[in-house]
Design goal:
This protein has about 160 residues and is an alpha+beta fold. It is built from three helices and seven strands. It folds into two domains: about 55 residues; about 80 residues. The strands form two sheets. The chain has a four-stranded antiparallel β-sheet with strand order 1-2-3-4, with helices on one face. It has a three-stranded antiparallel β-sheet with strand order 5-6-7. Helix 1 runs antiparallel to helix 2.
Length: about 160
Amino acid sequence: MPAETTVRLRRDFPPVLRLVLGAIGALVIIVPAMELWPAVWPFGWHSLLLGFILGGAVVIGGLLLVSAIVGEETIWTLNDAALEIQRRTIFGIRRDTLTGGDIAAVNVHEHVWESRPSSFAIAVRLKKGRRLISPDCGDKAEAETLRRDLSRRLGIEP
């Protein structure tokens, strides 16, 4: 019996997007700080109001910077014997290999969006209780096909 093909699902975090988010985050922090600092110092009653504005800029810019730094690229690879999940960040690569004995259930997961059509993914519930969601599949039919294929290859009851 010939070996089956390897199935890959991938969610990228392109380097260009990292640079854009990092630049925007830095600008959101630096520009208000430079423009409002003369009005904040020396401290007075008006410093409280401007302090909230600066604090908001630091929070929003900080979130953008953190997402640029720790955003991950995810690759799910299904072969004949196991499901390998690879997460790549700027801090390194983490690989987890799951076999049929590690997985309790496999389902189709629907992401419902307000501004665009729903997208579908594979949800894997581990026996330890953790739930992993794959990168998006093309449509519901493709997600259902991948769910059946994953269950069959790893010997998981539907």
